[in-house]
Structures are given as structure tokens and as C-alpha cells.
Here is the input.
Amino acid sequence: MSLDLYLGIDKIKNINHFEYTFAFDKGIYALVGENAVGKSTVMSAVASMVYRQTLRRLGESELCPESKVTLKCMDKETVWSYDGKTGRLTPSDLAIQ
Here is the structure.
């Protein structure tokens, strides 16, 4: 059985726009690529499903008012968007926990 996880990232750190659906089966996975292409940002977004503080740790220098992360898994969706008051990403709904 595969677990599908949709990840959308907009305007965070070095990522202008990214969308991908990961199909996870049993096994070990690796995310590889050149330096400064967004591997850590992608992993932070995926980790936010388990560790809620992961995306909140991104600072104002890494974000802008259009910054957003969308996670969809098993018909549930959580959208993290920029909060101008705090300068951080905050979830609009904690559907995926």
C-alpha cells in the first residue's frame, strides 16, 4: 500500500515554486541534489506533519508575504501561510496531524 503526500511550496528560501506528490511505500528514501536547491526546505515541510514547530522556525529572512506550504495526505489538507504579525508561517488548519 502506498501513502501519497502532496507537497506545495511557494516563495520560501531558495524555492520560488515547487509541487510534487510523493508516493511512499515501505523502504528507505533519500533526497539528493546540489547545494542550495531546497532539500532542507522540502524536508522541513514534510517533517511538519510530525513536528509542528519545524516550519515555525523559518525566520523573516527566509519568508515573504506570499510564502506558503500546502500538505495533502489521505484527503486531508493543511496550509501554512505567512503571518505578517509574527513574521512566521502559521497553519490555517491542523487537519494533518
About this structure: The chain has a mean pLDDT of 86.
